[in-house]
């Protein structure tokens, strides 16, 4: 936090900024608050577990060790981080909000901003990768793993920087007239900048995918009916449809929230942005587990790997009960062998027929 923020917010609390912007917070828990937090926590757990499953599947199956899937794994990581961010939000919302310090409030908002930016940049990287690959009628990009790693690191650096911008100075703590309604300590100018930047990125991605689809449609008519070419085309188109569905759901889930933020940034008093805030937030949160559902329905290999991981986990938990039985049988077997060895030692090492039979029966019994 910079010194300007500390000076401006020295004698002001989070409650002060909320009341000034007209966003009142209840100081006691209502039924509505309990419902929101309960549903929010449920969705957060689903988001975290589903994206862990996606990352595990891509790591486990070597068929997914290609640039496009590395980027999709990073998208799952961004969604996983989004689940963590919303989980943090659920424990710092409602009546808990007024107990936050100004610094804690900026951390709460910064986590959400960072996760969204990481998701947007990932989808943009996927769009560029698909454009580069499809126009060569290839299934996978020729980019090296090192380049993909550099792109992923760059994505997270930019996301973190954009998430920190408000706390580094682009806020309204020293200019109360510029405070927004939905985010009472964010400057309206920042909301306009952030919303337009993301909506512009959405537009670019949609245009890129439309161009790719038109190209694939044109190229498909020129391809021969050779079996290998037809199968290759079907695989390319199938992966393209999966990625497009991911982008489509992302745009559908996030566009309403960004439009409401833009209206708030433009100081639209008649728009009543607070009325739609919660719905937009829930819709955006749900997007973080949609991708796992898309993979399950669209990608057979991904669906198969999901089942393998889940079956492996269930088998491990089931085998824990049978371990003691195996250990017990092995212990009894060792005791039987020790007993026979002692008997033989007592008889000066001369095995009798009785001992031989005893040995055989003991081994069979074990």
Automatic annotation (TrEMBL):
Q: Which InterPro entries did the record assign?
A: GPCR_Rhodpsn (IPR000276), GPCR_Rhodpsn_7TM (IPR017452), LPA_rcpt (IPR004065), LPA_rcpt_EDG2 (IPR002277)
Keyword Cytoplasm in the entry? The reply is no
Main localization of the protein? membrane
List where the protein spans the membrane.
Answer: 34-59, 71-91, 111-128, 148-170, 190-214, 235-259
May I have one GO cellular component term?
A: plasma membrane
Q: How does it sit in the membrane?
A: Multi-pass membrane protein
GO molecular-function annotation terms?
G protein-coupled receptor activity; lysophosphatidic acid receptor activity
Domain G-protein coupled receptors family 1 profile: from-to ranges:
50-295
What domain of life is recorded for the organism?
Eukaryota
Keywords (alphabetical) are: Cell membrane, Disulfide bond, Endosome, G-protein coupled receptor, Glycoprotein, Membrane, Receptor, Transducer, Transmembrane, Transmembrane helix
Q: Where in the cell is it found?
A: Cell membrane; Cell surface; Endosome
Question: Which Gene Ontology BP annotations are present?
Answer: adenylate cyclase-activating G protein-coupled receptor signaling pathway; angiogenesis; posterior lateral line development
Q: SMART domains this protein is in?
A: 7TM_GPCR_Srsx (SM01381)
Q: PROSITE patterns attached here? A: G_PROTEIN_RECEP_F1_1, G_PROTEIN_RECEP_F1_2
The family this protein is said to belong to: Belongs to the G-protein coupled receptor 1 family.
Q: By what name is this protein known?
A: Lysophosphatidic acid receptor 2b
Q: What is the lineage of its organism?
A: Eukaryota, Metazoa, Chordata, Craniata, Vertebrata
């Amino acid at each position: 936090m910079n010194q300007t923020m500390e000076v401006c917010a020295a004698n002001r609390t989070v409650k002060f900024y909320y009341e000034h912007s007209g966003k009142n917070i209840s100081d006691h828990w209502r039924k509505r608050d309990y419902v929101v937090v309960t549903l929010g926590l449920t969705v957060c757990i689903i988001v975290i577990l589903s994206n862990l499953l996606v990352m595990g599947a891509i790591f486990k199956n070597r068929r997914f060790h290609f640039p496009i899937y590395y980027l999709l794994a990073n998208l799952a990581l961004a969604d996983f981080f989004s689940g963590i961010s919303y989980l943090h939000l659920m424990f710092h919302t409602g009546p808990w909000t007024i107990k936050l310090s100004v610094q804690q409030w900026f951390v709460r908002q910064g986590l959400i901003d960072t996760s969204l930016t990481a998701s947007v940049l990932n989808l943009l990287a996927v769009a560029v990768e698909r454009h580069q690959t499809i126009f060569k009628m290839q299934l996978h990009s020729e980019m090296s793993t090192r380049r993909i790693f550099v792109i992923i690191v760059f994505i997270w650096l930019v996301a973190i920087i954009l998430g920190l911008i408000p706390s580094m100075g682009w806020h309204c703590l020293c200019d109360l007239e510029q405070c927004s309604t939905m985010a009472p300590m964010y400057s309206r100018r920042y909301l306009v900048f952030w919303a337009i930047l993301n909506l512009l990125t959405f537009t670019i991605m949609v245009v890129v995918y439309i161009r790719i689809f038109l190209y694939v449609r044109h190229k498909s008519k020129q391809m021969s009916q050779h079996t290998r070419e037809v199968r290759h085309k079907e695989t390319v188109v199938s992966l393209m449809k999966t990625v497009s569905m991911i982008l489509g759901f992302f745009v559908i889930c996030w566009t309403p929230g960004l439009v409401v933020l833009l209206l708030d940034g433009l100081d639209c008093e008649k728009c009543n942005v607070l009325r739609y805030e919660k719905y937009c937030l829930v819709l955006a949160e749900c997007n973080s587990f949609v991708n796992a559902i898309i993979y399950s329905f669209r990608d057979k290999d991904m669906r198969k790997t999901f089942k393998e991981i889940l079956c492996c986990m269930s088998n491990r938990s089931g085998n824990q009960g049978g371990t003691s039985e195996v250990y017990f049988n092995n212990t009894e077997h060792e005791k039987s062998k020790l007993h026979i060895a002692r008997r033989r030692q007592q008889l000066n090492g001369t095995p009798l027929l009785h001992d031989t039979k005893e040995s055989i029966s003991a081994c069979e019994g074990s």
